[in-house]
């Protein structure tokens, strides 16, 4: 069996995880509980605390974590941070042994994952582009949808590990294909918010019963996951506690447009949606849930 197809026996595999935020924390805890071993690294001590209490091993830097890991997973907020953690001074690339594997669970865009894959490949280090679908609740339950991309044999060799955090694992194609599926998903799911904000403002201005708006629309073709799970039960009730932060949605929409530009595909609607996210971020809502997009047209929903 070739090195690319060889999977180290799971019980002997040393796993590391970097990035323990809303998504990464849940993924890491599932691996620790199911695998029994995990090295972790995050600048936020509070984020690391539950994992350390459960038996994870603290590592001081990405390089130090890489030195004691056969497979490293990352869940990081921006492409710049991913590049620094993996390729920068003191990064994973300086500590990983040949034939080690890096699995990026981040949404970083095609250019970033291709650059990481190329640089790691030159060191004979394997790389999987594997952004995730669903949110923190699914991450904690081990029921994420995973969009794996890269060498098929490499993806197959870590299926046992990915199954600890994902309820459904899809092989999407070569490096970058996972990003394309994830960003297409967010183009739609985050884009609905702009229309929902406008629809709510229109019904409100007309003097319509907004309880009927919230009751009727989910029963029609207007229904969507954000409408039913974010805007009606949370945003329209003044609850903007983060499920998926608006700043992350803004970053993803910027990546959507960059990808569309690079591929030469249309992005007219996406650019309009991006204006909404930029306006909400400029108004100071970046750390709130992406349902705060409703505040652009309905500022009275925020009762502080």
Topology:
Blueprint: E1 15-18, H1 24-35, E2 39-41, H2 45-53, E3 57-58, H3 62-67, E4 71-74, H4 79-87, E5 101-104, H5 110-121, E6 126-129, E7 132-133, H6 136-141, E8 144-149, H7 152-157, H8 159-162, E9 166-173, H9 177-189, H10 192-205, H11 210-216, H12 225-231, H13 246-263, H14 268-282
Parallel strand pairs: 1-2, 1-4, 2-3, 4-5, 5-6, 8-9
Antiparallel strand pairs: 7-8
Any overview of this molecule?
There is one protein chain. By secondary structure, the chain is an alpha/beta fold. The chain contains 14 helices and nine strands. The chain has helices at residues 24-35, 45-53, 62-67, 79-87, 110-121, 136-141, 152-157, 159-162, 177-189, 192-205, 210-216, 225-231, 246-263, 268-282; strands at 15-18, 39-41, 57-58, 71-74, 101-104, 126-129, 132-133, 144-149, 166-173. Strands 3-2-1-4-5-6 form a six-stranded parallel beta sheet, sandwiched between helices. The protein has a three-stranded mixed beta sheet with strand order 7-8-9. Helix 5 links the parallel strand 5 and strand 6 (126-129). Helix 1 runs parallel beside helix 2 (45-53), helix 4 (79-87) packs parallel to helix 5 (110-121) and helix 13 runs antiparallel to helix 14 (268-282). The longest helix is centred in the C-terminal third of the chain and has 18 residues, at 246-263. It is globular, with a radius of gyration of 20 Å. The model is unreliable at 1-6 (pLDDT under 50).
